[in-house]
Write a structure and sequence with these properties.
The complex is a heterodimer. By secondary structure, chain A is an alpha/beta fold. Chain A is built from eight helices and 16 strands. In chain A, the strands form three sheets. Chain A has a seven-stranded antiparallel β-sheet. A seven-stranded mixed β-sheet of chain A has the order 11-10-9-8-12-13-16, with helices on both faces. A two-stranded antiparallel sheet of chain A has the order 14-15. The longest helix of chain A has 14 residues. Chain B is an alpha/beta fold. Chain B is 37% helix and 17% strand. In chain B, the strands form three sheets. Chain B has an eight-stranded parallel β-sheet with strand order 3-14-13-10-9-8-7-4. Chain B has a four-stranded antiparallel β-sheet with strand order 5-6-12-11, with no helix packed on it. In chain B, helix 5 packs parallel to helix 6. Chain B is globular, with a radius of gyration of 19 Å. The relative contact order of chain B is 0.15. The model of chain B has no long low-confidence stretch (mean pLDDT 95). Classes of the chains: A alpha/beta, B alpha/beta. At the A-B interface, strand 14, strand 15 and helix 8 of A face helix 1, strand 5, strand 6 and helix 9 of B.
């Protein structure tokens, strides 16, 4: 890749070491936790779609099966520069020993982090109308994206249940909702909403983050309609900065490290085969 | 705390394990601050092969108690790609460069050593012998005679020091080390990862796309320490010790066991500056050794 291309990528570089931020707020939000930490020495301008590797300063390890050991990758949900540093919001759900420990954080505790990492979302081409599609915990990076987009965006969000859909209240705009059980919004998939939106007009620029099956549907819809899409993918990561080569995703140009060339990838770099390793 | 390794002057004793730090990727993530605060005293490249490799299909990682199994499969640009695009960038690092190479035959290994060995940017070459020889089916580094033949084949092709990276998946790593020494290796490094696997919790099939992988991290440290000690007692050439080193005290343990230098690997995944921290802790430990002894014995013992 040329240096010119690298300069253009939406990436704020991270300090080359782990540092400790201080948890300043913990909010229960239905099925999720919203953790706020004051990062006194990190950059104040992470780009929407970038992520941080997170671990607790104390008590990381010794959970189920003596885990966690590795830090966990999380997109930041919002960043607010303050006099004492940047306040970072992370949306998380307890699904294993690492996320359980993070979800148990209390104000005053230390949050060890490396970041911001990866490449974030690019602005839409002139005249395109942003269509922002989120599924579950994948709504996190779309919160700061919504703030950063100058165009008013269409928000389409999908959740399992009403408890998960509480996260929709974090958006400034008014999202159209779908839930698996129909307890809030439309019963069905968020990609049903996207299909209808794309049928209404070809001027869309799609931004999406969510589980692999959802992103694959979004990718296929973008391809079918000839609409540009940017997908924020997720993968298990050991390091987050290109060292371990563990987070690769198959693209049309071969495997790419999601932590380095992603997590946001143009949808047209992927074909349907990408999901085979991701759906594990 | 400067050291000399195979005649190469280093600012300290902490290297990285091959394949655990990509300095080119890290410079993209961290910018020039990485060079100003570079975490290692010498940089060991990811292993290169003659032909480009995509590596193994995902998933490639599995977290274990205090460790990690990886099944990466040596993705790299191949010799030509490395020389053309990676080597010029690695030459900008502020520390000596060690290039790790792997051949699937002795001829391939010879090609790699000859082509890498005549580049001024390269201080040393590490031979990754943890792969099957396609001619014999034997893992080169698991067998003393295979290892000796590989080193003998390439020894005269370069004036650069050759480090043989030993695999712990051998009956007698010290015998392999002695064979490498006898064939002209300037140093040995160990341990590589320990072979391991994990099963998918629902399908009961192997989790990793490559089926098996290599275990690293604190989980392997006690095994690595024993192997480093047994190798260091057997050979006169320097030993680079690694395996789960995460603190200065761990590094001091490996050096007390006979290592001339140490390498930090998996701990860098948790903190990109781990090498720098380990070096600082190691230096501080040297200064305060006596006053710490009593409470440290107590706290580290099973009764602590």
């Amino acid at each position: 890749m040329t240096q010119t291309a690298l300069r253009d990528e939406p990436r704020t570089q991270a300090p080359p070491e782990r540092r400790v931020a201080t948890v300043s707020g913990v909010e229960r939000l239905g099925a999720y936790r919203l953790i706020t930490a004051l990062d006194a020495s990190g950059p104040a301008d992470p780009r929407p779609g970038q992520f941080y590797m997170l671990a607790t300063e104390e008590g990381w390890g010794g959970g189920a099966d003596e885990r966690p050991y590795l830090p966990r990758a999380f997109s930041y949900a919002r960043a607010r520069p303050t006099a004492g540093g940047v306040e970072l919001d992370f949306l998380l759900e307890s699904v294993g020993p690492g996320t359980a420990r993070l979800a148990a954080l209390e104000p005053g505790e230390g949050l060890a982090l490396v970041g911001p990492l990866g490449v974030g979302f690019r602005p839409p081409r002139a005249g395109a109308r942003p269509v922002v599609v989120g599924g579950g915990i994948g709504v996190a990076p779309l919160l700061c994206l919504e703030q950063a987009l100058s165009e008013r965006s269409t928000l389409l969000l999908g959740f399992r249940t009403a408890a998960h859909a509480r996260a929709a209240a974090l958006f400034a705009g008014e999202p159209a909702l779908a839930t698996d059980d129909g307890s809030v919004g439309r019963r069905g998939l968020v990609t049903d909403l996207l299909r209808e939106r794309l049928a209404a007009g070809p001027d869309a620029a799609v931004y999406a983050c969510g589980p692999p099956a959802m992103l694959e549907s979004v990718r296929a819809l973008c391809a079918e309609r000839g609409v540009p899409g940017q997908l924020a993918l997720e993968s298990g990561m050991a390091c987050g900065f290109g060292a371990c080569f563990g987070c690769v995703v198959p693209t049309r140009d071969g495997f790419v490290r999601l932590c380095l060339d992603g997590p946001v990838l143009d949808a047209n770099r992927l074909d349907a085969a990408w999901i085979e390793g991701a759906a594990h | 705390l400067t050291v000399e390794l195979c005649g190469v002057h280093l600012g300290g004793p902490v290297l990285n394990g091959s394949g655990t730090f990509d300095a080119i990727a890290a410079r993209r993530a961290f910018g020039d601050a990485l060079l100003e605060r570079f975490p290692f005293h010498a940089f060991v490249s990811k292993t290169i092969t003659v032909e480009p490799r995509q590596g193994n299909p995902p998933p490639r990682l599995w977290e274990t108690p205090a460790g990690l199994i990886n099944s990466i499969g040596l993705p790299n640009k191949g010799l030509r790609g490395f020389l053309a695009s990676d080597l010029p960038q690695l030459a900008e690092l502020p520390v000596p460069l060690v290039v790790s190479v792997m051949g699937f035959s002795r001829d391939e290994l010879a090609t790699l050593v000859a082509r890498v060995g005549n580049r001024d940017e390269v201080a040393m070459i590490e031979l990754n012998v943890s792969c099957p020889n396609v001619e014999t089916g034997l893992v080169m580094g698991a067998d003393p005679a295979e290892t000796a033949r590989a080193v003998e084949r390439v020894r005269a092709l370069t004036a650069k020091p050759l480090i043989v990276k030993l695999t712990p998946n051998a009956d007698d790593p010290a015998a392999v080390a002695a064979a490498a020494e006898g064939a002209g290796a300037a140093a040995v490094s160990l341990v590589n990862t320990l072979k391991g696997m994990a099963l998918h919790p629902i399908t009961r099939e192997p989790w990793l796309g490559g089926v098996t992988g290599g275990l690293s991290g604190p989980a392997v440290r006690a095994i690595a320490l024993e192997q480093v000690r047994s190798v260091a007692r057997r050979v006169a050439i320097p030993v680079v010790g690694m395996g789960g080193i995460a603190t200065g005290r761990h590094a001091a343990d490996f050096m007390s066991a006979g290592a001339a230098c140490v390498a930090v690997g998996t701990e860098s995944f948790r903190d990109p500056a781990a090498g720098r921290r380990v070096a600082a802790e190691l230096a501080a430990l040297g200064r305060g050794r006596r006053s710490r002894a009593t409470h440290e014995v107590r706290s580290l013992s099973p009764s602590g």
